[in-house]
Amino acid sequence: MVLKVYGPTYASPKRVLVCLIEKEIEFETVHVDLFKGENKEPEFLKLQPFGVLPVIQDGDYTLYESRAIIRYYAEKYKDQGTELLGKTIEERGLVEQWLEVEAHNFQPPIYNLVINVLFAPLLGAPSDSKVIEESDQKLEKVLDIYEDRLSKTKYLAGDFFSLADLSHLPFGHYLVNQTGRGNLVRERKHVSAWWDDISNRPAWKKVLELYKYPV
Ligand SMILES: N[C@@H](CCC(=O)N[C@@H](CS(=O)(=O)O)C(=O)NCC(=O)O)C(=O)O
């Protein structure tokens, strides 16, 4: 049975897809239409009770939460494809640290901008200007910390590409290309060079080619 990834056009499922391609793991995708509410259907909720994407089915093994899924496959296929977890426990610690930073400091403000700058106007919903302003301010501070870190090491966990860098791709793509705030990256020399490096990796370009973002 081939691994099934439910999504796949949305940002968090793309985090899983790019990891599977880097690890040279075969998979199929199952489209779930969020705009039609298919993620709230009883059948889907049996797989993912929180009603969000992605979820994977690998034989009789089911897993959700994109960062849990990429950690699982990066470990399970440690010796296949791109090495993504570092070579020592100290490097692994830094990979985990920056994975958490991405989840708790990088993605949330970008998610708020995607909802309020990108989706709200499309759906005829009101945008929250206070949330937009707070998200811009939070991102400035976060990216200043990234600029300092990336002035010392080529990648976030060290001088090697890892799961931590990979995890930034789906929402970094929104930030740089679709929120009108790409300048926040471009104004920071090391962050800009890092973004160009990781977003030009063949695996990510393949994800963008095969699975278009919904907007
Ligand atoms: N922490 C979850 C977040 C999943 C999530 O919020 N997915 C969004 C799609 S995306 O924002 O990641 O592109 C979703 O399904 N949203 C549907 C909904 O919120 O009803 C993960 O990383 O898997």
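^ glutathione sulfonic acid complex. The radius of gyration is 17 Å. The longest helix spans residues 89-123.
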